[in-house]
Design a protein that fits this description.
Elements lengths: L8 E4 L5 H12 L3 E6 L2 H10 L4 E4 L5 H14 L5 E4 L14 H29 L2 E6 L3 H4 L5 H21 L4 E8 L5 H4 L3 H8 L10 H11 L11 E4 L7
Parallel strand pairs: 1-2, 1-4, 2-3, 4-5, 5-6, 6-7
The chain binds NADP nicotinamide-adenine-dinucleotide phosphate.
Length: 245
C-alpha cells in the first residue's frame, strides 16, 4: 500500500478455505484490514482464527438480504471496503440435457448475480476515495469451455464481460476492475475430480503441476497494489499454460 497511514479495508468473499483463504492471508500481509466471508458462523470464526487482525463475517452472496445486512454491519462496525475480491463460487455440474433449473440458477445466482449485489453498494465508497480495486475470480474454462459445465462456464464468461464493462464505467476515478482466471488449482473444488479426470487435465498443463491457492493469491495481491494502477478490464490467466488465449 502506498500510504501507511491509511487503513484500507478489503472484503473477500468465500474466504473459509481454498483460494479465498489464501487471498485473505496474503492481503493481510500486504497491510489491508481483511474482512473474509463464510456462509456459517463456524466458518466465520475459522476465518478470524486464520488471520492476525482481520475478521470473518457471515454472508450468502446469493441472497440480497444477506448482502444488505453485511453492508449495514460493515458501515456500523468498520468501514465500507475499497477493495473487493469476488471469490465465492460454486459448481453444479451436469450435462445440459440433464441439468435441472435449480442447478443452472444456483450457479448463476452465486457466481454472477453476486457481482451485481456486492459491487453496487461499494461503488460509492470507492468513487469517493478516488481509489478502489475490484478483482473477480473467473476460471480458465470461461474461455476454454468444458463439457458438463454449461452453467459454470456461462457464469465465468459473464464475469469477464462484467469486468470489462465496469472497468470502463469507473476507470477515470482511480478504480480498477480486473478478473483472474485460475486453471487447475488444488482446493476442495478440484478434490471432487476422479483420478482419470485429474491425470487428463494435468497432462495438458505446461508447468506440469496443479496450481496452488497461493499462486492465485499472489496475482490478486499484485492487482490490488499501486503497481497495478494502469491495469484495468483485464482477465489475467493463472493456469500454468493449460490454455493460452
Ligand atoms: P472452494 O474451496 O469450493 O471454496 C468456495 C468458497 O465459496 C467457500 O469459502 C464457500 O464458503 C464460498 N461459498 C460457496 N457458496 C457461497 C454462497 N452462496 N455465498 C457465499 N459464499 C459461498 O472453492 P475454490 O476452489 O477455492 O474456488 C474459489 C474461486 O475460484 C471460485 O470462484 C472458483 O470458481 C474459482 N476457481 C477455482 C478453480 C480451482 O481449480 N479450484 C479453478 C478456477 C476457478 P463456505 O465454506 O462457507 O461454504
Amino acid at each position: 500500500m502506498a500510504d501507511d497511514a491509511v487503513t484500507r479495508y478489503a472484503l473477500i468473499t468465500g474466504a473459509t478455505r481454498g483460494i479465498g483463504n489464501a487471498i485473505a492471508k496474503r492481503l493481510e500481509k500486504s497491510g489491508f484490514f481483511v474482512i473474509g466471508t463464510a456462509t456459517s458462523e463456524e466458518g466465520a470464526s475459522r476465518i478470524s482464527d486464520s488471520l492476525t487482525s482481520g475478521v470473518g463475517v457471515t454472508l450468502r452472496v446469493d441472497d440480497d438480504d444477506s448482502v444488505t445486512a453485511l453492508m449495514d454491519r460493515l458501515k456500523a462496525e468498520y468501514e465500507l471496503p475499497v477493495v473487493l475480491v469476488n471469490n465465492a463460487g460454486v459448481t453444479r455440474d451436469n450435462l445440459l440435457m440433464r441439468m435441472k433449473a435449480e442447478e443452472w440458477n444456483s450457479v448463476i445466482e452465486t457466481n454472477v448475480t453476486s457481482l451485481y449485489r456486492l459491487c453496487k453498494p461499494l461503488m460509492r465508497p470507492m468513487l469517493k476515495a478516488r481509489w478502489g480495486r475490484i478483482v473477480n475470480i473467473s476460471s480458465v474454462v470461461g474461455r476454454m469451455g468444458n463439457p458438463g459445465q454449461t452453467n459454470y462456464v456461462a457464469s465465468k464468461a459473464a464475469i469477464e464481460g462484467f469486468t470489462r464493462s465496469l472497468a470502463l464505467e469507473v476507470g477515470n476515478r482511480g478504480v480498477t476492475v480486473n478478473a483472474v482466471a485460475p486453471g487447475f488449482i488444488e482446493t476442495d473444488m478440484t478434490d471432487e475430480l476422479n483420478d482419470d479426470q485429474r491425470e487428463q487435465m494435468l497432462s495438458r498443463v505446461a508447468a506440469g503441476r496443479m496450481g496452488t491457492a497461493e499462486d492465485i493469491a499472489a496475482t490478486v495481491d499484485f492487482l490490488v497494489s499501486e503497481g497495478a494502477s494502469y491495469i484495468t478490464g483485464a482477465t489475467i490467466p493463472v493456469n500454468g499454460g493449460l490454455y493460452m488465449s
